[in-house]
């Protein structure tokens, strides 16, 4: 009888604990890690770094598969995520074209506030870069003088109309009163290579996209568009230091499609929190000039997206959509 009671008690305990264990959601198949930009750029580098850490630390029972969808300045990726509503096995690494592309391409049928916010991993930054061969350009003043003289012969490389670099280029044109020729490339890595090869004259690449060439002495930064100088670039002045009111950042957040299950959202949020807190991620942020003070998630991130959408609507209205798209 004593044995029977023990078995009954054990079975009861199992019955109580089993539902809790089963309730903890985990991926049941590979997770599509969509990147709304081309290979070699900042978003691509970040997504692949995070994917590598997930694999290295064995944080997921199923692999994360990076998939680049850069078409239409991220329109391809945004539409893809919209059409994956309710799918718990798709997440996307975003940038500011998350906001600008649906604003400019009104017929896209995408409202980013309907997506599922998971984690804001960093605020990325921008610097103005030229080839080190340009000995005549040593600072923002000499840069502006040279560009003003060259006019449309001055070629600025970027990652596409509506992308962050095209927005920042339009802001500079409006601020300094010149017009340049904007040349789009498939990704930030390609932009960086074309600057080194002198196929373009300047770019406002993210630090991560230029680091390899900067450290090799092929390119040089003239100004950073941040509130304060970043530790990675202590000798490069900010635009505000030079009396220019241009400050612009790029959000690096992970988001899911609309209508994800709450259990899946919680699992992904916990996963990216662990990645955010890791020594590897924090070291990357410091070395590559990203701001990673705290990970934003949930309703806070949803509110952040809403505010950024409004801010970019105002920014595009100010500089003009045609200044960004070139149409």
From TrEMBL:
<dbReference type="Pfam" id="PF03401">
    <property type="entry name" value="TctC"/>
</dbReference>
<protein>
    <recommendedName>
        <fullName>Tricarboxylate transporter</fullName>
    </recommendedName>
</protein>
<dbReference type="InterPro" id="IPR005064">
    <property type="entry name" value="BUG"/>
</dbReference>
<dbReference type="InterPro" id="IPR042100">
    <property type="entry name" value="Bug_dom1"/>
</dbReference>
<comment type="similarity">
    <text>Belongs to the UPF0065 (bug) family.</text>
</comment>
<feature type="signal peptide">
    <location>
        <begin position="1"/>
        <end position="23"/>
    </location>
</feature>
<keyword id="KW-0732">Signal</keyword>
């Amino acid at each position: 009888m004593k044995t029977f009671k023990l078995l009954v008690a054990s079975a009861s305990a199992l019955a109580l604990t089993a539902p809790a264990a089963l309730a903890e959601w985990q991926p049941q198949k590979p997770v599509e890690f969509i990147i709304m930009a081309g290979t070699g750029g900042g978003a691509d580098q970040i997504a692949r770094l995070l994917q590598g850490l997930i694999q290295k630390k064995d944080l997921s029972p199923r692999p994360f598969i990076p998939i680049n969808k850069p078409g239409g300045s991220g329109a391809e990726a945004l539409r893809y995520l919209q059409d994956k509503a309710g799918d718990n096995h798709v997440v996307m690494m975003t940038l500011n074209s998350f906001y600008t592309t649906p604003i400019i391409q009104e017929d896209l049928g995408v409202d980013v506030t309907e997506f599922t916010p998971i984690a804001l991993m960093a605020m990325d930054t921008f610097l103005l870069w030229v080839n080190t061969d340009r000995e005549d350009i040593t600072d923002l003043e000499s840069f502006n003088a040279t560009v003003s003289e060259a006019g449309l012969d001055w070629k600025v490389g970027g990652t596409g109309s509506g992308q962050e670099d095209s927005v920042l280029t339009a802001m500079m044109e409006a601020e300094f009163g010149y017009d340049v020729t904007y040349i789009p490339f498939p990704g930030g890595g390609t932009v960086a290579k074309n600057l080194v090869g002198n196929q373009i004259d300047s770019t406002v690449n993210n630090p991560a996209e230029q680091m390899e060439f900067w450290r090799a002495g092929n390119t040089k930064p003239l100004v950073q568009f941040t509130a304060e100088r970043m530790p990675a670039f202590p000798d490069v002045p900010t635009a505000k230091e030079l009396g220019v009111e241009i400050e612009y950042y790029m959000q690096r957040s992970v988001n899911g499609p609309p209508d994800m299950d709450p259990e899946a959202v919680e699992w992904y949020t916990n996963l990216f929190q662990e990645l955010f807190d890791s020594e590897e991620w924090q070291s990357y942020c410091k070395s590559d000039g990203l701001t990673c003070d705290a990970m934003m998630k949930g309703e806070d991130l949803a509110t952040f997206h809403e505010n950024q959408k409004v801010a970019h609507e105002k920014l595009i209205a100010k500089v003009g959509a045609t200044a960004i798209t070139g149409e």
